[in-house]
Task: inverse folding
């Protein structure tokens, strides 16, 4: 049995699958607790259902993108480990980069299934876990204290500020605007100067996809607001993304 | 005790237990993730090379450590307690969890830092994580028939552009709310990336100055509205 075959063996699926099952159970517990609490404090169940439906539809397409990351890494690390990494704690943009850097550290000329050894694999796997765990550690140690400090009072009493978000809410929306601007700005920069400053020779596909997706979102919003098709709200992001991605296929032809 | 006091007490208890549970499951997940390579090592008969791990951590891990600190500081207030514990356990923050939670929050009209946002954010992140786990499990189970479809040359551009599609749609939602607030960071970032195209590899770090600029502008506008008695 080759190393790659062993990396995709039943034992590997069992180890990785058990951790994924634990995390799935954690998500279910948090989901049920939040739902019950929402009902107990008198939140509208329609709103909660809408949040769940919108989040589910929203997540399908990015999840398929993440599945591609699993496929990409499976050629060198087998299927179960990338499956675990991208289901738990991992990030699509992070895994490939760290796996390649880790391979270099263990003396592999490239991240490749044919070059993989058991020792190289376990070393790469540990490094992949070690590098990205800090968010979880910080969350474990400081989540409560940090939220306390931000609220300027006990994090256990958020109900005092139940209806008005104040500047905190404005700041969070602004932060998100900043986040989107950074990404869209990077697509513009890549197109204009990606292959030399002001050569306009970089890829314009991400920019076009973002524009098509935004236009589709505009259409969905118009239908929801002006034509009273409110049910579209839960699917508008997923639908816009699908149309944007379809544009990428057409541009790519 | 009035109904409001009773609800606040319930919420206080909920938050306390959320922090306890969040810390516990984060620790357990951490132990499992760090333990898995050793368990796999026992199965394969080869333990990790700790020297190479240390060298690798210095070469790539430190950058990610800084990035993790930034993510913790920025995203925890956005997601609230329950949502952030879950998000840091399940990952894929920028490309999925953050936009997903923000979308759900906007859809129901919840405000950051409120009880309602705490509940909606937790529901959103938990649902999103479960969908990802289900899609990946299904994808892995059906890997053989799916691989040629997902890796086809025709569909490759679509999957390479999930993030632009996501930020295009979300951008429309946010930019139309306040075009003036959105224009300044967008133009600033575009100019920055045009003159320093090398920064495109560090876009996730550029969220910080871009976000800081947007927050500063929002603060000035908020103050002006406050003076005019509009907030």
Result:
């Amino acid at each position: 049995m080759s190393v790659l075959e062993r990396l995709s063996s039943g034992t590997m699926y069992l180890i990785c699958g058990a951790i994924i099952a634990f995390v799935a159970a954690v998500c279910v517990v948090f989901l049920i607790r939040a739902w019950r609490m929402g009902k107990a404090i008198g939140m509208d169940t329609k709103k909660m259902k809408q949040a769940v439906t919108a989040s589910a539809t929203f997540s399908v397409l990015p999840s398929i993108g993440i599945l591609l990351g699993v496929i990409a890494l499976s050629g060198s690390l087998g299927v179960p480990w990338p499956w675990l990494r991208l289901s738990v704690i991992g990030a699509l943009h992070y895994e490939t980069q760290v796996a390649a850097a880790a391979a270099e550290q263990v003396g592999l000329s490239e991240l490749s299934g044919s070059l993989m050894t058991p020792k190289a694999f376990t070393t790469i796997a540990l490094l992949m876990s070690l590098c990205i765990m800090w968010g979880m550690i910080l969350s474990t140690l400081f989540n409560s204290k940090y939220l306390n400090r931000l609220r300027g009072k006990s994090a256990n009493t958020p109900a005092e500020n139940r209806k008005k978000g104040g500047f905190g809410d404005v700041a969070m929306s602004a932060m998100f605007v900043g986040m989107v601007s950074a990404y869209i700005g990077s697509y513009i920069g890549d197109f204009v100067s990606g292959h030399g400053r002001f050569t306009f020779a970089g890829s314009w596909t991400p920019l076009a996809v973002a524009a098509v997706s935004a236009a589709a979102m505009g259409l969905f919003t118009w239908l929801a607001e002006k034509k009273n098709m409110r049910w579209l709200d839960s699917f508008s992001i997923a639908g816009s993304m699908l149309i944007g991605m379809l544009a990428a296929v057409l541009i790519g032809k | 005790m009035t109904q409001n006091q009773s609800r606040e007490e319930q919420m206080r208890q909920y938050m306390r237990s959320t922090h306890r549970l969040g810390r516990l499951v984060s620790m357990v997940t951490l132990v499992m993730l760090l333990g898995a390579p050793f368990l796999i090592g026992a199965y394969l008969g080869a333990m990790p090379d700790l020297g190479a791990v240390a060298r690798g951590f210095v070469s790539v891990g430190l950058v990610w450590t800084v990035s993790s600190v930034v993510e913790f500081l920025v995203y925890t207030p956005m997601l609230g307690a329950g949502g952030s514990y879950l998000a840091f356990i399940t990952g894929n923050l920028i490309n999925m969890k953050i936009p997903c939670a923000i979308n759900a929050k906007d859809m129901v009209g919840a405000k950051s830092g409120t009880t309602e946002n705490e509940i909606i954010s937790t529901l959103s992140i938990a649902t999103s994580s479960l969908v990802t786990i289900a899609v990946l499990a299904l994808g892995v189970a059906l890997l053989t028939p799916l691989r040629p479809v997902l890796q086809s040359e025709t569909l490759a551009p679509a999957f390479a552009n999930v993030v632009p599609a996501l930020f295009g749609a979300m951008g429309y939602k946010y930019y139309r709310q306040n075009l003036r607030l959105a224009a300044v960071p967008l133009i600033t970032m575009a100019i920055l990336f045009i003159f320093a195209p090398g920064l495109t590899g560090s876009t996730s770090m550029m969220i910080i100055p871009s976000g800081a600029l947007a927050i500063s502008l929002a603060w000035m506008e908020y103050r002006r509205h406050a003076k005019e008695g509009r907030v």
Remarks:
- Chain B touches chain A through 166 residues (CB under 8 Å).
- Chain B has a mean pLDDT of 90.
